[in-house]
Predict the structure of Cyanuric acid amidohydrolase.
Amino acid sequence: MRTTSAGVFKIATTGPGDVSGLMALIGSGAIDPKSILAILGKTEGNGGVNDFTREYAVAALCAALAPRLGLSPEEVEQRIAFVMSGGTEGVLSPHLTVFTRSEAERPAGLSGKRLSIGMAHTRDFLPEELGRSAQITETAKAVKAAMADAGISDPADIHFVQIKCPLLTSDRVEAASARGNKTATTSAYASMAYSRGASALGVAVALGEIAPDVRDEDVLRRYDLFSKVASTSSGIELMHNVVIVLGNSAASVSEFEIGHAVMRDAIDSAAVIAALESVGLGFAPQATNGRGLVNIFAKAEASPDGSVRGFRHTMLEDTDISSTRHARAAVGGLIAGLAGTGAVYVSGGAEHQGPAGGGPVATIARLSD
Amino acid sequence: MRTTSAGVFKIATTGPGDVSGLMALIGSGAIDPKSILAILGKTEGNGGVNDFTREYAVAALCAALAPRLGLSPEEVEQRIAFVMSGGTEGVLSPHLTVFTRSEAERPAGLSGKRLSIGMAHTRDFLPEELGRSAQITETAKAVKAAMADAGISDPADIHFVQIKCPLLTSDRVEAASARGNKTATTSAYASMAYSRGASALGVAVALGEIAPDVRDEDVLRRYDLFSKVASTSSGIELMHNVVIVLGNSAASVSEFEIGHAVMRDAIDSAAVIAALESVGLGFAPQATNGRGLVNIFAKAEASPDGSVRGFRHTMLEDTDISSTRHARAAVGGLIAGLAGTGAVYVSGGAEHQGPAGGGPVATIARLSD
Amino acid sequence: MRTTSAGVFKIATTGPGDVSGLMALIGSGAIDPKSILAILGKTEGNGGVNDFTREYAVAALCAALAPRLGLSPEEVEQRIAFVMSGGTEGVLSPHLTVFTRSEAERPAGLSGKRLSIGMAHTRDFLPEELGRSAQITETAKAVKAAMADAGISDPADIHFVQIKCPLLTSDRVEAASARGNKTATTSAYASMAYSRGASALGVAVALGEIAPDVRDEDVLRRYDLFSKVASTSSGIELMHNVVIVLGNSAASVSEFEIGHAVMRDAIDSAAVIAALESVGLGFAPQATNGRGLVNIFAKAEASPDGSVRGFRHTMLEDTDISSTRHARAAVGGLIAGLAGTGAVYVSGGAEHQGPAGGGPVATIARLSD
Amino acid sequence: MRTTSAGVFKIATTGPGDVSGLMALIGSGAIDPKSILAILGKTEGNGGVNDFTREYAVAALCAALAPRLGLSPEEVEQRIAFVMSGGTEGVLSPHLTVFTRSEAERPAGLSGKRLSIGMAHTRDFLPEELGRSAQITETAKAVKAAMADAGISDPADIHFVQIKCPLLTSDRVEAASARGNKTATTSAYASMAYSRGASALGVAVALGEIAPDVRDEDVLRRYDLFSKVASTSSGIELMHNVVIVLGNSAASVSEFEIGHAVMRDAIDSAAVIAALESVGLGFAPQATNGRGLVNIFAKAEASPDGSVRGFRHTMLEDTDISSTRHARAAVGGLIAGLAGTGAVYVSGGAEHQGPAGGGPVATIARLSD
């Protein structure tokens, strides 16, 4: 019986322009470039507006993959979903995670649900729709489409939903204005949070985590509304949302399994351990026989109320280091300590992604055989 | 029978100049100001050369304690050992730890070793002695004197040795030069590392952790030579070393106990858990019945070889955030996650304090009763 | 005939806690501590929310002046207007400018207008009044009162108006809310800009630079409304505005004169030279015979439209260095180059203080005799 | 008569990957891509070890120019000298300066010396030669060869010598060590200063600014030895020095002229004005009839003695902002103010390039006709 298989490859990089690890895996036949669906990366910039390591990494990957795919670099950027998260503070280590999907023959006797990946796009948004219910509703639709693409029908089987979403620029704000419409904000920086937040709420709606009647004014305000599996990231290069769902499916013959938990705050070690245990791993997974840790995906943020479990933090008042850099360093230190490696994907900006001050944490393990 | 008792008080602060928490405990009678031996603090500066929160905190504490002790602020600074560690990156929370010592009556039936504190000073050093064998040898002597002061004879009962040590200024370098002598370095910044390193080696010699024949050229080079319990910090205001030993003694009737472990690298969660277990606590100590966590004291640094367990870190090459800030954020995140609180003492600059890239981690628990 | 004299003393400091220069001038009799009206300082912090060098400097000055004035440190802080501007980026050099006022006998034959200083306070504001017309109107009244105090009636004789104004805290926002009122913003950081902006507009109204009918919604929006001489700075320690006017008066027998110009952008060297020339100095004032430069006072900001004379700047998009630090460094470099010294007062946050991207620049010269 | 012509084009960029301005000039025929000799750029990174905007800019330029030159991107990087200087602090504006050289017919009646450009390479260095007399001597030879290439024989006609030089990596240090040789330093970061310093001393030797007998131990120590026209910049991608000399030659029919002066410290406005005047421009060159400013090239650094004209600066002790960023912001502010534009080339790291704390400043003007 023909079915699908999802692959996951973690590749350390020596800099944002380093594509040698991926090219070596392609050269050896371990990765078929045509099977690449998405690449998530941690790059060593500051993760802020002026972090050029993200676009540099994407440019380098597109240039390197273009001849292998018989496409132009621009076409590669359209075909593969690139999500680069800047900021490897503390012990975090720059790396790429390459997701592949291919048809496969189901071996006899294989049982259990296994990693499956699906993708979908929304339509292009108008600038005035970003950060508002239109973006929420359309994202919810796309999440359902991506679930279908992944062959997953039960929301409980979805463990991580990575979304790339647009942001506002002054041109886009003016275009809305010329139509007589106001955008959610006029600031490019603030629009990133709005877009991330609405996209995360769209995931929550699609998975039934919250009721579908989210209002425009709830975005970036009602932080009790959130998804436990959404991870969203905004970029200037698109006007629609790209949705990647990662879950487990009985139809998949992948060698991998995914699970998740929710950090209720930035020091929630129990949640990190629960995420490891959800895929049969434990604390210090290196020691685990058989199953092996591939990667952990988490979102981090400085809790907006200025404290963690009753003790004041100083991340939001530091004029020298942005709070997103602080949060990645701290949460990255905790996850790395529990996972036994700094090559984990910890990303900042967790609006409506987990509770305020916390965030989702997903784990992918390679199954024993 | 008369004996001694050591007290430990952790006090959250609202800023480097905030003395209200300490004054309230003095006002309520919980702390007798005359019993205060040392105050260790985490302040919210950058921990670097231009971190003025440390001297501001000391100035505020001296001004506030002066009338309670019938001394001038300058005399308070001489009487009490103030060790302020700047930098509360990530989830770390600004606070003070106040150590007291007083005579007490031994209750009948009390058994076991309990927290005991001892202090001692070296003689003043010549600038050319800093970072060299003279500083090592004199520090070792002072550690032994402080052990005697604490009533501890077995090095195995020593779990944390906090040292304040001098640094070089251009005036001090010139004074040495005028005598025809060269200092270990002419840079004030570099001299801090030399002084911290030699002081830590002095602890290692005193406790028999390394052989006493350390040579000048081993300082900041032979990182295989280190102490598992030394925590050293250099300051401009003194020319001698102040040594505070924290250990357990059968002579103490303190309500507290101390233990330690050694982090072999910045993600060594097992060591943090071992340090918690060494005083009868466990992972998530808040849940522990009876015994309670008071504080954790740890040193952190970016591993000099640029990697942690085989994965590259980017702390040493970041021009925007100093590696000490990165390291405190990451190690602070891990320890806070395992301890369940960000109000822990994580300090940077761990030369010869634990192995390269790692550092000592000590825990004080309040005993159940 | 009895009249008044205003004195100005520029004192280099070795750190935010350094009061030795001021104490030496008091010890030598050059400064009578009772004559001190205001102290403006540049301290070496980051100038942001977590810049503790400002309060440290004020605490050190109050503690040092208290015994000389027979007051408690708290009373000193009430008596003297302390305005500390954090941030000595680039070539800017930490220093204090001490303003004194005393009665004097008018020498025969003295002519011309000379430096005169006046002070006044507004009433305490309600939190909901900050950043709005109430603050504008009350500030305008206080500016007129301070002009009268300085013996100056012609607005053309006013060259610098330094204002200290309140900010919002969460407690203050809640107090307004409990009264059923909304504040201009709920963010402490944003409230600083609102309070600075409204205070500057109050100066503009008082001096007839703009019409008095400024509306609440003009604050931080209508940047075409501004004062050419206002310099405002918000602090948490007060709920009213303190207004210090610096101008020239025929009644003054001061040895000093003040003038000003307006920088239309951050590279407006012509304005800096005009400010120097307005008090009889020129480019490279050190070379000027007779008259000597005392200090320059300027406000700097990154132009909100992202460019300077048609060329893009990157200050507003830098996640690692705040735009206020960039702006002080650049404008400080220009003014220092033209003034021949880095010991100048360049402060950030110039809302409604000069045109957008520019700011006022005032110069005080010592007269030849 | 056939002779050469040198062209200079300043092109604003919207980001480090923006090549559109250059492509447009090529598309319009204004620039013949085959005539491009060198591209100097200011990119908006931090200018430090982890500034990836420099290599990103070079990668983008090489990819864009490759099809125009019929070469691979790697061959473009070999053919054209790319010198990217990271850091557009303060008002500095990201831009490229493209230098071209082509054969031309000398018009009758043309007189005077005009801009001429020459290039030369040294042989590859051994790692142990970097920062030492071998690098000095070979660089001096290459400077003379580049002068010949430019058709300039009189050192007084040389106004700017831009050098790209190697740095040490751990591999290179080990290679030296395997040969039994020690390198000048084992730190990659420190090696950049050594290589820049030795290269600048090579220029000084070639131009007769200093005696040729410079010893290894003079590098980074004898700061009284310096070149008034050297600007050096180290990069990981080469093991030899690339030398670009810019001067004036009677053989050139260029529309441009170059001149220079030397800033004796970071606030030396007189030197900047002298550099403008050396090419017939003045203060506020925009207003100058006929001649027009093309660009200014300067090196900046924090004065190593910690003060500027007797006043303390705080650049060297700031743990949050590197001194090179401070220095570029301040000197950039001054030069932009005097030049009337932030699109100037101000670069950090001025070892032996101008006096300690100062640096060379060169100006290129377009001639009137």
